[in-house]
Amino acid sequence: MREFIQAVVYFYNYLKRYWRGLLFAMIAVLVGTYAQIKAPVYLGQAITALATYLGEYLNPTTHHQASMNGFYNALWAMVFFYGLTEIGLVASGLITSRISAKSTGEMRVSLFSKLQKMTIRYFDTHQDGKILSLFTSDLDNIFNAMNQAIFQVFSQGLLFLGVIWMMFEQSAIMAWVTMALTPIAILVALVIIRRARYHITHQQQAISRMNGYINEQVNGEKIIITEGLQQESIRNFDPYNEKVKEETYKGQVYSGMLMPLMQGLSLLNLAIVIFFGSWLVLHSGMSKATGLGLVVVFVNYSQQYYQPISQLTSIYNMLQLAITGAGRLTKVKAEPEEVDQARGTVLPALKNGVQLDQVRFGYNTKQEILHDVSIDVQKGQMVALVGPTGSGKTTVMNLLNRFYDVNSGQITFDGVDIRQVDLKSLRDQVGIVLQESVIFSRSIAENIKFGKPNATDKEMIGAAKQANIHEFIMSLPEGYQTQVSDENSVFSTGQKQLLSIARTILTNPDFLILDEATSNVDTVTETKIQEAMNNVIAGRTSFVIAHRLKTILGADKIVVLKDGRVIEQGTHNQLLAEHGFYADLYHNQMVFE
Ligand SMILES: Nc1ncnc2c1ncn2[C@@H]1O[C@H](COP(=O)(O)OP(=O)(O)OP(=O)(O)O)[C@@H](O)[C@H]1O
């Protein structure tokens, strides 16, 4: 019930601005449905008029032209009402399609804007595929429901009530006869909806599990190919696919069953209506011609009456999917936002330095990752963070840029706690070169200018030169205009990092965080990266997460992290003299280099 109310609120928020269009669509449905239930009355009158005329025609002594006029009048009225039905239904369909497309478009924009404000924590804890499915399946389901189901609930509900009302207007006894099979129809519909729902829920779960498997296998394709595990991967795919196949089949069997069953019931009912109607014509006091007309009217109503019941499963399924989708999107909307642009003081340019003061932090409440970490960086200094894998180096970087907040202690820029600072002004000062370099689908020039789109070409080329990537870019036939993307990258891993460095140099940050690429790069590229790093670091305050110790020998301070604690601090020579963890690490690496 909570999910239902949530969905109603969600739809209301997006649909309220279209109230005029919706009102118009409803009036169109109202007119169309009224015409639809009114038309059979004229059909009946036409039949009655024809029967009267034929009766008189067969008896030449009482032949009147007038009864034929009644037939034509009724016929025209019937055509008019059926025409009106079509106009009403087409008009309301067009309006609802337009409103659904527009409001789903707005939902898409709002979802995308929301995602752009999400915390790193959100992206760290949600799979890419699941985020993508908000845009694909959830919004699609919502569109389908708005376009068809909500409209159908209204129009079919109206038709159902309207037919009952009209039937009682025409003949109460015939109305009861037409409705005779209603309890069976409703019972059948409920049983089938329950079964269909069961299998459709299982089908969705099976699809989600299968997608998870495909996602994982595609991401791990390199390992699968190198280990020759393709056949195994195909074999393991089978049970996922089988489950989807089985549940889809059963779901379709049940949901597809309702329509023919209802048609069957309606045909059975038709026979009852004709049988009872004929009995009434023969045994009641009404004229035979009127009775014949009445039978024809109820033949029509009998079909219209069972139509809404047969639509129930598809409407129900569509609504159910939309309610789940709206629930998921409401949850996303309620997620805490990252960029709270207007809050806090604007951070002035760094004057003294950056401090981590007794910082404690964990990604979740169960496990603390950093314990009492204190690091002091003076303006213009280069601090290197070293330590075994999992020791917390990247975590320190995440905190410095305020991707996450500390649990206790504080991080300060010139003595100001970064939690008190306007986030944008903090991010403007901090430049990050990540281990994993990202390439966007656009030209190389636009990729370099990503953080500063209004940079001049001269500035951009200057940055590329400092990052040691200019010559390579110029060797490409289209130079800086070469279109690149993650799938169609012309860069090696090392070159991608050089591009990231160029991107960062261009934004000219005061404070720099550099996460050195761990992947093996050839010695020429390694030297180039080293030079580029020296260029970007020069004159800046920087934190370098180093994996190859020889890259940080000249650091002003080396901080050694182990299991989330600072175990040693000092210059390279000081730490070597201590013969501690760093000295061991250094000697071990030198043996392998
Ligand atoms: N998003 C996250 N959620 C939960 N735990 C995480 C997350 N990121 C890292 N951790 C955990 O925090 C610890 C420190 O990880 P971190 O990435 O900071 O180490 P690192 O020193 O940078 O390692 P590496 O040298 O391998 O990059 C690890 O135990 C890791 O499992």
TrEMBL record:
InterPro entries: AAA+_ATPase, ABC1_TM_dom, ABC1_TM_sf, ABC_transporter-like_ATP-bd, P-loop_NTPase, Type_1_exporter
Key words, A-Z: ATP-binding, Membrane, Nucleotide-binding, Transmembrane, Transmembrane helix
Membrane protein topology class: Multi-pass membrane protein
Domain ABC transmembrane type-1: 23-321
GO molecular function: ATP binding
Transmembrane segments: 21-37, 74-95, 149-167, 173-193, 264-282
Domain ABC transporter: 354-588
Chief site of localization: membrane
Locations listed in the record: Cell membrane
Protein name: ABC transporter ATP-binding protein
